[in-house]
């Protein structure tokens, strides 16, 4: 069975990322192929500021239990969907830290990005695509949701057909990549 990680990048107490992750999950549940979803909430994932002895690119050896657990969790995925807010034109520090912990685990991993913010997450999506490509992930596309056009500040989602289509197409692309690589 295909295992897809659904990562919530915001750790704020008043976040709307959970609502958006549920919207994405509903899209996954509507797909033809059954998938196992690993909900990865960075608020619940214990990752202190990067504390590795060396760069994960130079030496992939994990020296702490939390780094080993994080690496094993990502390594077990066939694909990843990152749900992230845009904070001041960029990604949350917790997300950057989680990415920095690993290197080889990102290599070739199909990734779909779902960003949200006042500008439909355009800034975070551009930067995150660049970062994930830099660490070797295979970015399959992105979907951006805007306050207040697509969702309320409380997380009520009221997207139009254009965003629903973008999500469906992103999931189809991700699914096709995963099925091709498994075959």
From TrEMBL:
Residues 3-148 form the NADPH-dependent FMN reductase-like domain. It holds the Pfam family FMN_red. This is NAD(P)H-dependent oxidoreductase. It comes from Brachybacterium epidermidis.
């Amino acid at each position: 069975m295909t295992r897809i990680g659904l990562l919530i990048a915001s750790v704020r107490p008043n976040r709307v990322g959970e609502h958006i992750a549920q919207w994405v999950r509903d899209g996954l549940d509507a797909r033809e192929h059954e998938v196992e979803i690993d909900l990865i909430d960075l608020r619940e994932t214990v990752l202190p500021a990067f504390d590795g002895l060396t760069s994960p690119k130079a030496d992939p050896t994990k020296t702490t239990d939390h780094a080993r657990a994080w690496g094993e969790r990502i390594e077990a995925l066939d694909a990843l969907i990152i749900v992230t807010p845009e904070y001041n034109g960029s990604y949350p520090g917790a997300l950057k830290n989680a990415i920095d912990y690993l290197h080889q685990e990102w290599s070739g991993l199909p990734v779909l990005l779902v960003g949200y913010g006042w500008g439909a997450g355009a800034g975070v999506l551009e930067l995150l695509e660049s970062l994930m490509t830099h660490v070797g992930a295979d970015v399959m596309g992105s979907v951006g949701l805007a306050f207040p056009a697509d969702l309320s500040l409380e997380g009520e989602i009221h997207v139009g057909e254009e965003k629903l289509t973008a999500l469906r197409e992103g999931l189809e692309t991700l699914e096709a990549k995963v099925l091709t690589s498994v075959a």
